[in-house]
Amino acid sequence: MDKNAPLITDLFVCWLFVSAMTTSGWAAAENINKQKELLSSLDVRSRPVLCNETALLLEMQWCGDWFKREMELIPQRNWCNLSYFIWKYNHFSNCSEDKAVSTGCYWPNPLVENYIIHVHRLFFSNCTLSHVVLVDPPDYMLTMLIFVPVFLTLAMVALVVWCSKRGDFAA
Ligand SMILES: *[C@@H]1O[C@H](CO)[C@@H](O)[C@H](O)[C@H]1NC(C)=O
Ligand SMILES: *[C@@H]1O[C@H](CO)[C@@H](O)[C@H](O)[C@H]1NC(C)=O
Ligand SMILES: *[C@@H]1O[C@H](CO)[C@@H](O)[C@H](O)[C@H]1NC(C)=O
Ligand SMILES: *[C@@H]1O[C@H](CO)[C@@H](O)[C@H](O)[C@H]1NC(C)=O
Protein backbone atom coordinates (compact mmCIF):
# COMPACT_ATOMS: atom_id res chain seq x y z
CA MET A 1 0.00 0.00 0.00
CA ASP A 2 1.17 3.53 -0.78
CA LYS A 3 2.84 5.07 2.27
CA ASN A 4 1.26 8.38 1.31
CA ALA A 5 -2.24 6.91 1.72
CA PRO A 6 -2.81 8.20 5.29
CA LEU A 7 -1.72 11.67 4.21
CA ILE A 8 -4.10 11.59 1.24
CA THR A 9 -6.90 10.37 3.50
CA ASP A 10 -6.14 13.24 5.88
CA LEU A 11 -6.17 15.75 3.05
CA PHE A 12 -9.42 14.31 1.74
CA VAL A 13 -11.07 14.51 5.17
CA CYS A 14 -9.73 18.04 5.55
CA TRP A 15 -11.09 19.00 2.13
CA LEU A 16 -14.49 17.47 3.03
CA PHE A 17 -14.50 19.45 6.24
CA VAL A 18 -13.55 22.72 4.55
CA SER A 19 -16.07 22.30 1.76
CA ALA A 20 -18.78 21.45 4.30
CA MET A 21 -17.85 24.61 6.22
CA THR A 22 -17.88 26.84 3.15
CA THR A 23 -21.13 25.32 1.90
CA SER A 24 -22.80 25.93 5.23
CA GLY A 25 -21.22 29.40 5.23
CA TRP A 26 -22.73 30.10 1.82
CA ALA A 27 -26.05 28.68 2.96
CA ALA A 28 -25.94 30.92 6.02
CA ALA A 29 -25.02 33.96 3.92
CA GLU A 30 -27.85 33.15 1.53
CA ASN A 31 -30.23 32.84 4.49
CA ILE A 32 -29.11 36.20 5.84
CA ASN A 33 -29.62 37.78 2.40
CA LYS A 34 -33.09 36.28 2.20
CA GLN A 35 -33.89 37.62 5.66
CA LYS A 36 -32.60 41.06 4.66
CA GLU A 37 -34.82 41.02 1.56
CA LEU A 38 -37.75 39.95 3.69
CA LEU A 39 -37.09 42.73 6.19
CA SER A 40 -36.75 45.42 3.55
CA SER A 41 -39.97 44.25 1.92
CA LEU A 42 -41.79 44.74 5.22
CA ASP A 43 -43.44 47.97 6.22
CA VAL A 44 -41.00 50.70 7.33
CA ARG A 45 -42.64 50.93 10.73
CA SER A 46 -41.98 47.28 11.55
CA ARG A 47 -38.27 47.50 10.80
CA PRO A 48 -36.07 47.26 13.88
CA VAL A 49 -34.85 50.70 14.96
CA LEU A 50 -31.80 51.26 17.12
CA CYS A 51 -32.75 52.08 20.71
CA ASN A 52 -32.01 55.75 21.37
CA GLU A 53 -31.28 55.73 25.10
CA THR A 54 -30.87 59.50 25.35
CA ALA A 55 -34.30 60.02 23.86
CA LEU A 56 -35.75 57.24 26.03
CA LEU A 57 -34.40 58.84 29.23
CA LEU A 58 -35.86 62.21 28.23
CA GLU A 59 -39.23 60.65 27.47
CA MET A 60 -39.21 58.64 30.70
CA GLN A 61 -38.51 61.84 32.58
CA TRP A 62 -41.61 63.28 30.95
CA CYS A 63 -43.73 60.32 32.14
CA GLY A 64 -42.15 60.55 35.60
CA ASP A 65 -42.77 64.28 35.91
CA TRP A 66 -46.40 63.77 35.01
CA PHE A 67 -46.69 61.03 37.66
CA LYS A 68 -44.95 63.19 40.29
CA ARG A 69 -47.30 66.10 39.62
CA GLU A 70 -50.31 63.80 39.90
CA MET A 71 -49.04 62.16 43.11
CA GLU A 72 -48.46 65.55 44.70
CA LEU A 73 -52.18 66.25 44.30
CA ILE A 74 -52.86 63.34 46.65
CA PRO A 75 -52.37 64.02 50.38
CA GLN A 76 -49.18 62.22 51.44
CA ARG A 77 -51.03 60.11 54.04
CA ASN A 78 -52.86 58.41 51.16
CA TRP A 79 -49.78 57.61 49.10
CA CYS A 80 -49.96 53.96 50.15
CA ASN A 81 -53.63 53.61 49.34
CA LEU A 82 -53.94 51.86 46.03
CA SER A 83 -57.37 53.27 45.25
CA TYR A 84 -55.93 56.81 45.13
CA PHE A 85 -53.16 56.25 42.65
CA ILE A 86 -53.77 53.04 40.74
CA TRP A 87 -55.01 54.70 37.55
CA LYS A 88 -52.18 57.23 37.67
CA TYR A 89 -49.73 54.38 38.11
CA ASN A 90 -51.27 52.51 35.17
CA HIS A 91 -51.01 55.61 33.07
CA PHE A 92 -47.36 56.06 34.07
CA SER A 93 -46.62 52.43 33.27
CA ASN A 94 -48.39 52.72 29.93
CA CYS A 95 -46.54 55.95 29.21
CA SER A 96 -43.16 54.30 29.82
CA GLU A 97 -44.11 51.42 27.54
CA ASP A 98 -45.25 53.77 24.78
CA LYS A 99 -42.06 55.82 25.02
CA ALA A 100 -39.83 52.76 25.01
CA VAL A 101 -41.48 51.52 21.82
CA SER A 102 -41.48 54.94 20.15
CA THR A 103 -37.72 55.39 20.80
CA GLY A 104 -37.02 51.99 19.27
CA CYS A 105 -36.30 50.28 22.59
CA TYR A 106 -37.62 47.07 24.02
CA TRP A 107 -40.03 47.14 26.91
CA PRO A 108 -39.30 46.37 29.66
CA ASN A 109 -35.61 47.22 29.57
CA PRO A 110 -33.03 47.95 32.31
CA LEU A 111 -33.17 51.72 31.78
CA VAL A 112 -36.94 51.86 32.21
CA GLU A 113 -36.81 49.47 35.16
CA ASN A 114 -34.21 51.60 36.95
CA TYR A 115 -36.32 54.67 36.41
CA ILE A 116 -39.45 52.95 37.75
CA ILE A 117 -37.53 51.79 40.84
CA HIS A 118 -36.43 55.39 41.36
CA VAL A 119 -40.07 56.53 41.21
CA HIS A 120 -41.12 53.73 43.60
CA ARG A 121 -38.51 54.93 46.09
CA LEU A 122 -39.84 58.47 45.90
CA PHE A 123 -43.42 57.60 46.70
CA PHE A 124 -43.77 54.10 48.09
CA SER A 125 -40.70 53.66 50.28
CA ASN A 126 -42.74 54.08 53.48
CA CYS A 127 -45.61 51.82 52.46
CA THR A 128 -45.87 48.57 54.35
CA LEU A 129 -46.45 45.31 52.56
CA SER A 130 -50.07 44.99 53.69
CA HIS A 131 -50.98 48.30 52.11
CA VAL A 132 -49.52 47.89 48.67
CA VAL A 133 -49.42 44.14 48.34
CA LEU A 134 -51.18 44.40 44.98
CA VAL A 135 -48.57 46.80 43.59
CA ASP A 136 -45.27 45.91 45.18
CA PRO A 137 -44.15 42.37 45.83
CA PRO A 138 -41.72 41.92 48.75
CA ASP A 139 -38.27 43.41 48.19
CA TYR A 140 -36.48 40.14 47.51
CA MET A 141 -39.17 39.21 45.00
CA LEU A 142 -38.97 42.63 43.33
CA THR A 143 -35.20 42.27 43.15
CA MET A 144 -35.56 38.85 41.56
CA LEU A 145 -38.22 40.04 39.14
CA ILE A 146 -35.98 42.89 38.06
CA PHE A 147 -32.55 41.30 38.05
CA VAL A 148 -33.37 37.99 36.41
CA PRO A 149 -34.53 39.60 33.14
CA VAL A 150 -31.73 42.16 33.32
CA PHE A 151 -29.19 39.40 33.83
CA LEU A 152 -30.68 37.32 31.02
CA THR A 153 -30.60 40.33 28.70
CA LEU A 154 -26.94 40.99 29.50
CA ALA A 155 -26.12 37.30 29.10
CA MET A 156 -27.80 37.21 25.68
CA VAL A 157 -25.97 40.35 24.57
CA ALA A 158 -22.65 38.88 25.78
CA LEU A 159 -23.43 35.64 23.95
CA VAL A 160 -24.24 37.42 20.70
CA VAL A 161 -21.09 39.57 20.94
CA TRP A 162 -19.00 36.51 21.74
CA CYS A 163 -20.48 34.56 18.84
CA SER A 164 -19.96 37.39 16.37
CA LYS A 165 -16.34 37.78 17.56
CA ARG A 166 -15.80 34.09 16.90
CA GLY A 167 -17.43 34.54 13.53
CA ASP A 168 -14.96 37.31 12.74
CA PHE A 169 -12.00 35.11 13.62
CA ALA A 170 -13.31 32.23 11.55
CA ALA A 171 -13.86 34.43 8.50
C1 LIG B 1 -31.31 60.45 20.17
O1 LIG B 1 -32.21 61.35 20.75
C2 LIG B 1 -31.65 62.63 21.04
C3 LIG B 1 -32.68 63.44 21.81
O2 LIG B 1 -33.93 63.39 21.20
C4 LIG B 1 -31.25 63.29 19.72
O3 LIG B 1 -30.68 64.55 19.99
C5 LIG B 1 -30.24 62.39 19.03
O4 LIG B 1 -29.93 62.92 17.77
C6 LIG B 1 -30.81 60.99 18.85
N1 LIG B 1 -29.76 60.12 18.35
C7 LIG B 1 -29.95 59.29 17.32
C8 LIG B 1 -28.80 58.43 16.96
O5 LIG B 1 -31.02 59.23 16.72
C1 LIG C 1 -58.23 53.66 50.77
O1 LIG C 1 -59.10 54.70 50.39
C2 LIG C 1 -60.45 54.27 50.25
C3 LIG C 1 -61.26 55.47 49.75
O2 LIG C 1 -60.99 56.65 50.47
C4 LIG C 1 -60.96 53.75 51.60
O3 LIG C 1 -62.30 53.30 51.46
C5 LIG C 1 -60.06 52.57 52.04
O4 LIG C 1 -60.46 52.13 53.33
C6 LIG C 1 -58.61 53.02 52.07
N1 LIG C 1 -57.76 51.84 52.33
C7 LIG C 1 -56.78 51.85 53.22
C8 LIG C 1 -56.01 50.57 53.33
O5 LIG C 1 -56.49 52.82 53.89
C1 LIG D 1 -52.16 52.94 26.84
O1 LIG D 1 -52.14 54.02 25.94
C2 LIG D 1 -52.67 53.75 24.65
C3 LIG D 1 -52.56 55.00 23.81
O2 LIG D 1 -51.57 55.85 24.22
C4 LIG D 1 -54.14 53.30 24.80
O3 LIG D 1 -54.64 52.94 23.55
C5 LIG D 1 -54.21 52.11 25.75
O4 LIG D 1 -55.56 51.77 25.98
C6 LIG D 1 -53.57 52.45 27.07
N1 LIG D 1 -53.59 51.28 27.92
C7 LIG D 1 -53.88 51.34 29.21
C8 LIG D 1 -53.82 50.04 29.95
O5 LIG D 1 -54.14 52.40 29.77
C1 LIG E 1 -41.10 58.49 54.71
O1 LIG E 1 -40.98 58.78 56.07
C2 LIG E 1 -39.96 59.73 56.36
C3 LIG E 1 -39.87 59.84 57.88
O2 LIG E 1 -41.13 59.82 58.46
C4 LIG E 1 -40.32 61.06 55.69
O3 LIG E 1 -39.31 62.02 55.96
C5 LIG E 1 -40.43 60.85 54.20
O4 LIG E 1 -40.85 62.03 53.55
C6 LIG E 1 -41.43 59.74 53.88
N1 LIG E 1 -41.39 59.44 52.49
C7 LIG E 1 -42.51 59.13 51.78
C8 LIG E 1 -42.30 58.83 50.36
O5 LIG E 1 -43.62 59.08 52.29
UniProtKB/TrEMBL annotation:
Gene3D superfamilies: Receptor activity modifying family (1.10.150.510). It comes from the Eukaryota. GO terms for biological process: calcium ion transport; cellular response to hormone stimulus; G protein-coupled receptor signaling pathway; intracellular protein transport; protein localization to plasma membrane; receptor internalization; regulation of G protein-coupled receptor signaling pathway. InterPro entries: RAMP, RAMP_sf. GO terms for cellular component: cell surface; plasma membrane; receptor complex. One of its GO terms (molecular function) is coreceptor activity. It is a single-pass type I membrane protein. The keyword ATP-binding does not apply. The keyword Protease does not apply. Keywords: Cell membrane, Disulfide bond, Glycoprotein, Membrane, Receptor, Signal, Transmembrane, Transmembrane helix, Transport. Residues 1-20 form the signal peptide. Belongs to the RAMP family. This is Receptor activity-modifying protein 3.
